[in-house]
Amino acid sequence: MPKSWLNKIKWDEQGLVPVIAQEVGSNDVLMFAFMNREALQRTADTGEAVYWSRSRKKLWHKGEESGHIQKVHEIRLDCDEDVVLLKVEQIEGIACHTGRHSCFFQKLDTKDGVRIWETVEPVLKDPEGMYK
Fold this sequence. Notes:
The chain has helices at residues 4-7, 37-46, and strands spanning 17-23, 29-35, 50-53, 58-61, 70-77, 84-90, 106-111, 114-119. It is mainly beta.
């Protein structure tokens, strides 16, 4: 199958594109990551999210260690063609390596006139027990 669909994307200087994972149904934003061409191709081929780990410099199949796989329902490209949106089903409801539903669990709040980051989502599973 021709890969011309990959050429439509505006990859950055490192060959990466930002990716937002959004939960099907709730529309919760679960996480933000990056993909290279191979990661996006594998995601499209397998129906499960595969990202590029910038810290480890390798492909990362979401859930490969924790079991918290993301089943991809849709892949969308934004109007500038430089951000990908994955509409996913988050297996076991945990997307974050901290054991929370979403990586966006801290909310900016004001307490006694001081801005603070408040944790607004509970830990659903101890992260120590999530990884093999």
